[in-house]
């Protein structure tokens, strides 16, 4: 029995306590969707799980690199006037330095495979992509610019929903952006939405679901209410893929699920098919 | 000593008290409809998937003028409340509202919405049928209406579920109603991980009519009275006056003004 219960044997090999400190963070990752462990480099430039095709969350600037031939940023200087909610100013400052963005969305004029578009990319690393009044302002200005210059709008959504710190002003952004979506629509211009992980709450309940054409990335979480809120309301567990892009497509809310590496070609193709022909 | 007595009756309610009051069944949707309008004809269904009982809709006369009325109702007794999920509409409730708005547009009828909802229903079917899309489309379509629309929050104005029917030319609130991004409980649980701090949250959220009037989120606060008839008479008069002014605008100007109202935020 002693052979198997030998307390001493474990202590013979000394564990180097500092070993964890010497392994860089994020060297090995687990796919948030399928859970398969993989080496960082395995993800490749597009940062896609080679097991299930899930696209890891990207920062807006990373996406610009992957997607566009050229990009000219708009309204980079835009700032929240007086964030008076306790602790909000600090949170904003931290988000700004982490993402190198002024707000939770990056906007500008881009060329994608040669096609000129007004491009907006929301960044889930900036306060969970929440919809602040300046987020709404930047998207609104993007649509106004696009309407004036007869450009299609391509918007990548990623958001946890409303920005609580801004209260009712955050809610009003849903209507504010919808107003310029309406004007852009009436001008006969294309509004293309790409739903990325995660798109939820007030963004889903407004401009994310107002596109002429709606694409999504594989396995992206898309929904209105949070899964936990739903489960505690109906007292049952939700199926695994309940709020994923594939389910939304089955239910009729998504036109196509496009792998990240093909997004630029698909977007360019759709934009091209909407070129205004002279009558 | 005398002052204490006076303060008891004259003191302004705290935000937390307003929240509690807004959740009491002080006014019922049908009572409001019958109190303000005549000849109400109820219309059912969204023509796509069903009829949501929590959204009462129809046509009626306001001082003799035809109008479209859409009201979120919490229900009266327990069965009624359960079938209406305490005033939380399903996607087909919002689509019913959209259908009635389009109809109002066709027949040039002003639209009045009455709102009392903790929020859109967070259910499994609701999610599968596109609760987000239903609200998004309600907001977008409201932006295109060429008829005037006034929204009145008479209890809770919960988040996107309320905004779906409040993308209007004017928004009014009852004296003891609230309008907010989320319930104070939800707000406290998200920001401070403690839903018990709801009263504290109510105080910082700015959800009372007074706060919202100052922010120009709403245009008018309807004073409440124990005599509901008095409240309804006042509202009938004011609705009539406001619609007369809004009707004087061309459809283009009306849309421009409505969009500018929200562009300001």
UniProtKB/TrEMBL annotation, chain A:
InterPro entries: AcCoA_carboxyl_beta, Acetyl_CoA_COase_Trfase_b_su, ClpP/crotonase-like_dom_sf, COA_CT_N. This is Acetyl-coenzyme A carboxylase carboxyl transferase subunit beta. It catalyses: N(6)-carboxybiotinyl-L-lysyl-[protein] + acetyl-CoA = N(6)-biotinyl-L-lysyl-[protein] + malonyl-CoA. It is an enzyme of class 2 (transferase). Pathway: Lipid metabolism; malonyl-CoA biosynthesis; malonyl-CoA from acetyl-CoA: step 1/1. Binds 1 zinc ion per subunit. Gene3D superfamilies: 2-enoyl-CoA Hydratase, Chain A, domain 1. Its EC number is 2.1.3.15. It comes from the Bacteria. PANTHER family: ACETYL-COENZYME A CARBOXYLASE CARBOXYL TRANSFERASE SUBUNIT BETA, CHLOROPLASTIC (PTHR42995:SF5). Belongs to the AccD/PCCB family.
From TrEMBL, chain B:
It catalyses: N(6)-carboxybiotinyl-L-lysyl-[protein] + acetyl-CoA = N(6)-biotinyl-L-lysyl-[protein] + malonyl-CoA. Pfam families: ACCA. Its EC number is 2.1.3.15. One of its GO terms (biological process) is fatty acid biosynthetic process. Keywords: ATP-binding, Fatty acid biosynthesis, Fatty acid metabolism, Lipid biosynthesis, Lipid metabolism, Nucleotide-binding, Transferase. Pathway: Lipid metabolism; malonyl-CoA biosynthesis; malonyl-CoA from acetyl-CoA: step 1/1. The keyword Disulfide bond does not apply. This is acetyl-CoA carboxytransferase. The lineage of its organism: Bacteria, Bacillati, Bacillota, Bacilli, Lactobacillales.
